[in-house]
Amino acid sequence: MKTITQIGYSQTETWIARVYGDAGAARLKDIASLPKSGWMPVGTVEFCRAAMAHQGIVEPAPVDYPEALAKWMPYGGHVLCRYGEMPRGWTPEQHQGIHGKPVVTKLAESLWKPDTPFWASPYHRFGPEYRFYVLRGEILGYGRYDNLEDDPSDPLPLDMKAVREMIGAYQKAGSPAGYGLDVGVSDEDGVTKLVEINDGWALGFYQGSCSHRDYLRLLEARWLEMSAHLAQAVSYG
Questions:
Q1: What is the distance between the alpha carbons of residues 198 and 158, in angstroms, rounded to a whole number?
Q2: pTM of the full predicted structure?
Q3: What is the Cβ-side half-sphere exposure of residue 56, based on CA atoms within 13 angstroms?
């Protein structure tokens, strides 16, 4: 599938798309002049969201904290609330012991209103954190958030058994074709826990064991899955 990279986006993801995909380039404002189908975006959430709207693809519901993975979440997971219910003066940096974020994926802070749906949970300290690239239940590879290599003597080792159990449970519950499973080793009890799920339609690349080609393959599989209904509509007239 042809890819369109966002001009000015991350150099690594743009390079991957140009080397391993039939890539062109565009700015956000150029999307309206592009074809209505046959390509996938590689860029910011805003860029990918605009591409979905242009192609008539309904943005999937957020998948950050699947119920099927609740047992691996700190404190049993996040609860739904409203931004106006967060403590006065709360910010992602000044968290006041609470982790929170808007339910809508990467919603710009300028759009947060008192009634904006928010996820909230007690703040949890993690040691090393990882992103696993998962395609149809298969681990394509993973990388650390900090791009460092694991130290065998690290007192907070990653539990791969727990990671595989999470993927199996999510696959059974109906996971997207491609997604990022973000996990961390708790700095409080050393247990490997879920940080969040990142949908494959706008997924950043962390250096590690996932190949560039497989990363792009994951993005394409998710985009084709989201746009499949459009192809069916054309087929059946």
A1: 19
A2: 0.94
A3: 10
